[in-house]
Target: N-terminal acetyltransferase A, auxiliary subunit
Amino acid sequence: MSLTISELPHKEQALFRAALKLYEARQYKKGLKTCEQILKKVPNHGETLAVKGMFMAHLDRKEEGYETIKRGIEISPKSSISWHIYGIVNRSDQKYTEAIKCYEEALNGDPDNINILRDLASLQSYMRQFDKLIQTRQKLVKLNSVYVPFWLGLANTYHMAGKYDQAIKVISSNEEAMKNEPGIGPTEISELLMYKNWLMELNGDYQQALENLKEIRPKILDVTGWKEQKANLLFKVNRNEAAAMAYQDLIERNPDNKAYITGYLACNGLDITRPSDKDAILEVIHTLQHQFPNSSTLRFMPLTFCDGDDFVKSADVVAKHALRKGIPSLFTSMKLLYADKAKGTALGTLFEGYAVQLRDTKRFSDSADDEATSVQTWCKFYLAQHWDYYGDHERALQLIEDAVKESPDTVELYAVKAKILKHAGDIRGARGTMDYARQMDLKDRYINSKAVKYMLRDNDVDEAEKTMVMFLRNDATNKIQEIFDIQAIWYMRERGNAYRRLGDIGRALKQYHQVQSCFDTYRNDEYDFHSYNLRKVTMRAYVDIMNWEDQVYSHDIYVDSAHSAIDCYLYLHDRKQAGNPFEAIVSDEQKRVTRNGSSKQGQHTLSAGIGETKIAEVDKDPNGSGYVNADSHLAQALKFVEQLESAVGLQPKTHVAAFDVHLRMKKYFLALKSINSLKAIDDSHPSLTPMAVRLVHGLESDNEFAAPMKAALKGQLAKVFGDVTIAGTLSANDQSLPFMLVGASALLDIGGDANLASARAMLAQAASDKYGATRTLDNLLEARDLLAKCGSSDPELSELNKGAQTLFPLATCF
Model:
């Protein structure tokens, strides 16, 4: 029979409590010694074994620590302490589902333990288990009904579960008593009252919320937030005249806030998406422009809904103001308008007219005075980006070079020149130009980062590292590790892509996994906010951060890195299946560091700054061999696929990647699910037919798969696609290079001499005129890579390169 703490000898009880305090102080080695001291006297004390295991887990002895904890639980299966500790260790290792189960077991032994309930509540919040969380929060309130974070947590849980009336009821029952609680001041009261008012709005009680807003005004410190809510609620109760006055007040506070202007228009019954309202909206905006002449938002807004002559007039105002001010971001602001072809053409005509006027008369046609010489330079700067957007790189390059001659000391000109060269396919020239711009202003972080990015695009990883570390802390022990610590995810992604192009798959995967680690950190950091925000009563910000965390993995850098990692793992799997496994690349320098890292100390020295050297932890796997030598490359790829399906399930590329993984894993029903998901999103996607054909081929090639299952799957495919073939799809889309590339890739995956020959023939013609505007630089590079994968002859590659060079004469990659 096991002993509880109270049954330990008096001295050991004191030692046990001391061990728990040492854990809180993070003195893990001392805590471990204390536990061992207890176990010498009482070797089978389950709770002490659990605590010992917890210390071991924090001292990089995780496997041994887990075993020790489990042994403690076997001795004391009903001990709430042992189960709580097991939950804490699982939580620290991000095994949240297991941690929740442990906390629930702990509560079976001690149902009123506030610490366990609080830990469980934080995890349930993290996992968005709101129904269960309501029960946990209710127990906490029952145990201590006056403690603000407990009842506020319950209100927030009702909010997140969509039970707004219950959330309001909880706050109303406790807000008066809250004023007397220690640590609660005017700021906390203000935040709580605004949160409650927001809940009333969410509950649809607009009139009640408006009346409440008037009542609480003297206690509100967030004046802007209060005014925004007032305008919003007045509009929702159809008091449009009063709402318009409230929005007018807000515009006076910030005339560049588009939401205020849009709200003001709505109060006047105007909608910028409704063409019939255009003239009335223009009249209102012109009135506001006279009141707020410095508002760039008011100047720009008409461009988003006007067309024809009205668009040109509005664009003329915006353009001349920006050119005279020398605003480099003018094209960036205008770029979203180019989605409308007519507007893009109109802007080009407008700026070409400016260029002629400034060249011939040094002034605009409606100006009486000569313009500064810089105006002509910025006009050429804009036009260079305009023609670069439309793919006329030679014309764009000539314009930007003229601008550089006129103003050779302007860094922005070189940055745009580098971008044009990049788009034209001359990445080496782009890198050199951007580096020249960097050297013009060595204190500019932005241009330094752009130079690093271009170096990585040029696959010069070593030079990129040297340049990147210039802006890191001088006392950083390991400068490369510092890049990871500051979470420079753009650098990790670009570095991974560079290694991938160089064929160093191990290091590429290492970078992509570091991106994954950064986003995991963003997500895991949320855990601490579940208690922090409840103590600080910052409820509106708390809800915002939870909503942000829900979509954090949809960030472009994460999505791109995840797809690249999946491609790398598929490449490793295919190599292994073909009997030619990939081997991680190890340079001489890394061999030396690895040898030092395996020494007794496990450390080496790196430069920490000028005249200073410090000890740094060695990267034990600098070449990413752990990823290359993983037991199952497909299992690793599947982890990324599952995250993408959860975060960006509406993106077609997600389901293409899922299909590639599931097909190789011979999970045919999941592969079919991926096809159906893709079709639901885009029933004309180029990958649909090739995916269906590949699935049929996979089924026919798998002799171990049950015949009835095969028949069922083929039947499902036949219902959706009929007798379509890759050749038929390509014939129906014979002017689309993306369709051809996907089809050729599928033929290569299926294999066979005939398919190989067909793919080679198509790819060699990738630059032919019939593909028109779909012959982008990226598509042609993909065609070249696929052609090389086919083992094509030099004449075929030469034919493709010659055609691509004609389309992109400045490109150095063909």
Remarks:
- Residues 767 and 775 are 6 Å apart (CA to CA).
- The first strand starts at residue 603 and ends at 609.
- The chain has a mean pLDDT of 92.
- The chain has 43 helices and two strands.
